[in-house]
Amino acid sequence: MIPKALQILISELSQLPGIGPRSAERLALHLFLNGKNSSESLGNCLLRLHEEVLFCSICGGLCEVSGCEVCKDESRDSELLCVVERPVDILSIDKSGAFKGRYHVLGGKLSPINGVGPEDLRIAELFDRVRKEAVKEVLIALGMDVESEATVYFLTKRLAALGVKVSRLAQGLPAGASLEFADGLTLERAIENRVPVESE
Amino acid sequence: MIPKALQILISELSQLPGIGPRSAERLALHLFLNGKNSSESLGNCLLRLHEEVLFCSICGGLCEVSGCEVCKDESRDSELLCVVERPVDILSIDKSGAFKGRYHVLGGKLSPINGVGPEDLRIAELFDRVRKEAVKEVLIALGMDVESEATVYFLTKRLAALGVKVSRLAQGLPAGASLEFADGLTLERAIENRVPVESE
What we know:
The structure is a homodimer of 200-residue chains.
Chain A: H1 4-13, H2 21-33, H3 36-52, E1 53-55, E2 62-64, H4 69-72, E3 77-84, H5 87-96, E4 101-105, H6 123-132, E5 137-140, H7 146-161, E6 165-168, H8 184-192
Parallel strand pairs in A: 3-4, 3-5, 5-6
Antiparallel strand pairs in A: 1-2
């Protein structure tokens, strides 16, 4: 009933995250009905993707073939290094505008249960950079789950031995949150890390 | 910050229906991180799409280059013709399994406000087919909106003049519906079109 090329497109699309079989069908039909130009333009984008985007060999983030914008940026504070799990995390942190140092992508978190040890992550590279780039502070920007905790613990001990200051993201209430919807653990951390308010 | 090829892909993806800028970013990153094979395979699908899928010149539905499966299917009742708005509608109706005739896609609905007249739709082709293919019944499977009503009215008069029986989809409660959530108009139609229940 459905032409084969369309069927293949539907099955390819339904493998994308967050796209079920019904959405895949709708998208595929849209791509067909919207005309040859639009489907070819998306198709060519996809074919070019891996020719034009690379992982930076220094920070591990995404970069152009011509080199990594972040690592080349002289205006960034080279003494400040932010450790993240995935290349995507660099985008989130940079969007916030609150960090002006450089980045280092670990490529995962330590997880003995899943067989992920220090040698599977870009940890040796991290220590190399800390030594060579005269880094003074490492901000570990991982999540708040158990594996992140383990990774923070592992890194902190070894980074401290190299004589750098280690910090991690603050825990507390998210922006715009009301107390009503905060879970117990978040509140506990927010109370532990309470911030003094200065009277003027 | 985001490599250019990835930015272009994100903007292409965010033009698809139901995909906002955040989903587009997530999809683009997934396509990149999932490796060259998967993005190339989707890319090639898209490039092939318009080479391998056509509109059937008879029914107006989607078909292979080799010909339309539905129009060629001798097991279908050629005396029964179902008129739909879009090629997609053929898929919906055929999935239900309740219709075993042939199809005819109008390519739209009559809409004087939007400047869509009979000459903009595949209506002349419909009359031609009714005459040539010795159609006995035309089932008009349009929606329940004002434009569909106008189209049904327009077609019914002219088809009746050709001596064919004209029917349309029944209106009433959708399957699995509870009375609680049915709107007034649906209930009105369901009452008007009530079906006698036979005692055994």
